[in-house]
Design goal:
With 734 residues, this protein is α+β, with helices and mostly antiparallel strands. The protein is 36% helix and 25% strand. Helix 5 packs across helix 6 and helix 10 crosses helix 18. It is globular and about 95 Å long. It starts with a helix and ends in an 8-residue tail after the last helix.
Amino acid sequence: MESATDKMREVVVKVKNVTVSEKPQGEKKAKKVKSESSDGPLELNLEPDYIQHRVALFEKLRAEYDAEVAAKPREEITITLPDGKTIVGKSWETSPAEIARGISQSLFQKTVISLVDGQLWDLERPLEGSCKLELLDFNHPEGKKVFWHSSAHVLGEASERRFGCHLTYGPPTDEGFFYDMALPEGNAVVAGDLKPLETIALKAIKEKQKFERLEVSKENLLEMFKYSKYKRYFIETKIPDGEKTTVYRNGPLIDLCVGPHIPHTGRITSFKVMKNSASYWQNDAKNESLQRIYGISFPDKKQMTEHLHMLEEAAKRDHRKIGKEQELFFFNELSPGSCFFLPHGARIYSVLMEFLREEYWTRGYEEVMTPNMYNVKLWETSGHWQNYQENMFSFDVEKDKYGLKPMNCPGHCLLFAHRERSYRELPWRVADFGVLHRNEFSGALTGLTRVRRFQQDDSHIFCTNEQVKEEIHGLFDFLETVYGLLGFTFKLKLSTRPEEKFVGDIESWNKAEAQLQEALEEFTTAGGSQWELNPGDGAFYGPKIDITISDALKREHQCATIQLDFQLPQRFELQYNVGEATKSGETGEETHYKRPVMIHRAIYGSFERFIAILTEHFAGKWPFWLSPRQIMVIPVMVGATDYVLEVQKLFRAKGMHVDVDLSGNTMNKKIRAAQIAQYNYIFVLGAQERDSRSLNMRNRDDPATQQKGEMVPLDEALEKFCKLKSERRLENKL
């Protein structure tokens, strides 16, 4: 039972939240039988036969299960709460809901799901033995996932009742939930369907439909879902013969699902259908096209109001919108997923890179350059070909197969190995801004956040075992410096060994995970960010620390990563000379050599994605040091033109981006245009400023300076602006 459930859970966990708001390249266009306004009845006049078939079989099996439970002996059990308090209950009778109600009705009402001995557990599901019990509300990450997963089932019910569709999967995401489905005759969902779907969902919510859990054998599952090739696929491929998994029922909907769920649909106080798009079965462009419907829900209306306001603000800050308005970048269909950075966008790119280069110099990094393509023998040695091949661009060259590099680490191993290394050279910190390529699905490409061609602030540290902890602490300091400068807070997660795809022995993995955990605990004790465990989400070659930053809208983004790797040094047979002979840990023989430890590290992640995050974080109002449009100089009259050009020359000589507006527009129009373009400062210069060798400055972020700015002597202003730029201050103030 457990293995089948785990495999079903894997299906849900691995579903990517791929937004396909734009039609993917090569996707077949679904037929539409209606226009964008959907007329006709709210629901189907005659529900599909499969609904009654499912319900009849479910009720038969449920009656059998209830009889089994009724016959089980009731034994005294002890339930231990997080504060150490114990409560006595009965097996197969006492439920987490009963415990919550016994403490207080308000606690029960706000509890979404329970945790029983670390396992998520339905509130109304009877406990089977003595256990530790924790009650989770919506604000807990797991509580939120369960709430949105249950809401996805409500959306699935509404979709079946309106379309008679075949549901595929409907997982929670970081931003709500979605359900993928195949409509009869290849029809498509249109915008006019969204409100009716919401109306049907609200009816289901009002009915307070219970979520009922039932374990069902593979044989009965195939009978229950015989109408759906999608559900049959999951049953046939993920559930071994002779085993069971669970289904959940709410109202007429019965779905293959590992759960758990909220007690009933009435817990969903606020529900909204957000949008629809196309998707692919199993997110594979080779498969048939499906329809995807997105939704969001909350346990109270205030949260929905706040969320919708946040979405409005996020739309204003959308990096694709700002990138177009500020002429930062664009994409072209002739090179999907590869960004064209225009001059102003390239300025941001270059300044971010320059900042890191300064930090590299201070922190003892050495920059290198490595090839873009390698023979696949390199990737076979590293293990990437076996584990990452589908995400690589590969091609034949003179009868050999080559691949564009999706990451730098194997190439850096060749750098380390090209000559003998001494322990005196360690730690060796190698930085590389080389171009990388990853073969992302066309439907997954989204602005700068998901691309095929990109650059990373990629670095690898080769060090001894004894140096690992110090290097990790150095990286924590690096994170605080970079993210603090940009106004980000961050969280840390330790991601451990994946259950299936990994290389190397478990002992090495355990050792690596222990070292990272020790460094994290010391960092937290010293006043650094708190950290949490993220089991099974490590890279296939080693455990990692994922760093999540929080932006101005409190959205979280995973950018930085620190990965400890004992595997690649072994695969590439990397070694360094320790001087005196020691016993080898691998052979037990005396040797002068040891394997280095390899630390993978990135702080921005990809420049492209980081620029997208920064664009939305600052809402296009860049801090002065990072701004592609720092100063606009506007003459009041033709007689001031020479002085305007002189000022531009002086400031540009100090490395500042200064433009002048000598067009025929009125002065007010010139000022307004510069304000819309988000110049940090506008200099309005006339005879008075020319004759006194001074500047009349308007600060973008200071409303008091918008009518007539402060008058500052030219030399003094130049000095202050140089300081503002060099200090990389967030505040736009001299």
